[in-house]
Amino acid sequence: MYLEIVSPERVLLSAEVNSVTVPGIDGEFQMLNNHAPIVSVLDKGVIKVEGNLEIPKELKDVVTKAQDGKWYFPIKGGVLEMKNNKAIVLAD
């Protein structure tokens, strides 16, 4: 699936990914390829992304890669829309 993570300052990610886990206001949930359409408000936490990503050097201060191979993007909240195998996160 295609994932875009956008903050007010910059685009954090725009890439094909295997999965994304987000901090929904009612709890964390994961989306995989061909997930049903959804719109959700996001809570403070981290977006966990699994995939073979190339993170630009200017984002290394924001994004971390854990030993489990997942990329972690901290957010203060936001909104997510998943539709047609594309997820867009507007993050604070």
TrEMBL record:
What Pfam families does its record include?
A: ATP-synt_DE_N
Q: How does it sit in the membrane?
A: Peripheral membrane protein
Query: Where in this chain does the record put each ATP synthase F1 complex delta/epsilon subunit N-terminal domain?
Result: 1-50
Q: What does this protein do?
A: Produces ATP from ADP in the presence of a proton gradient across the membrane.
| Localization (cell) | Endomembrane system
Q: Which InterPro entries match?
A: ATP_synth_F1_dsu/esu, ATP_synth_F1_dsu/esu_N
Q: What is its main location?
A: membrane
Q: Tell me which species this is from.
A: Mesonia aestuariivivens
Q: What is this protein called?
A: F0F1 ATP synthase subunit epsilon
